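User: I need a structural model of GntR family transcriptional regulator from Actinomadura decatromicini for a docking pre-check later this week. Nothing fancy, just the predicted structure tokens so I can convert them on my end. Input:
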Amino acid sequence: MPETGPDLRIERPAETVPQLVVRRVRQAILEGTLSPGRRLTERELMELTGVSRTSIREAVLHLQTLGLVETSGRRGVRVAVLGSDDVRQLYEVRAALESEAASLFVKRATDTEVLELVKLTRPSKSDNDQLASIYHFDELLLAGARNALLASTLAPLHARIHALRRLSLSIPGRRERSEQEYRDLVAAITDRDADRAAQLARLHVDAAKEAALAAIAKLEEERASGS
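Assistant: Understood. Predicted structure tokens for GntR family transcriptional regulator:
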């Protein structure tokens, strides 16, 4: 029998280096560590992440595609700054797509997936806890809807909207109202009422839009006053 050679197979990493950079930068934006308008140069990103210029450039292109960063100056980017019109348009599209996702989830999700959504609507102790639950809620909703085109269309919108949610939760009472909206939505999903779920998803997005617009208006006012 021939001698067995050494196993030299290379395991394919779950994520490429640019994908890891995108995930880390995106997380920093969601956590507020990188705030809207924060300028980022290639050199700084290389120092912050410890990866090559080539990987940084590829990651930045993807972050621009997601709408999380935008060009700033000749050789840098900044964390995207969304105005009221941008926010309004994002939420209008989200309302249409997410209501459909809720309806499809009711029709196609398993009982186990429904129970997972129920778990995510338990009262949260902090904004960070709620943001993490919302992030997973979005993922589960799209997975259970079982429509790849809908998921690929909503995913980049969710990336931009999730960055706004920390601002929205700064509006007094918004976190508590948002939690109740999610509980109402999940109750309709549990009852397998597709029409009601779609309606409640749209109502939630409309309420979230108003909170986001209020937060953006406050931020713009602070910038204008120089505070």
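Before docking, keep this in mind: The radius of gyration is 20 Å.
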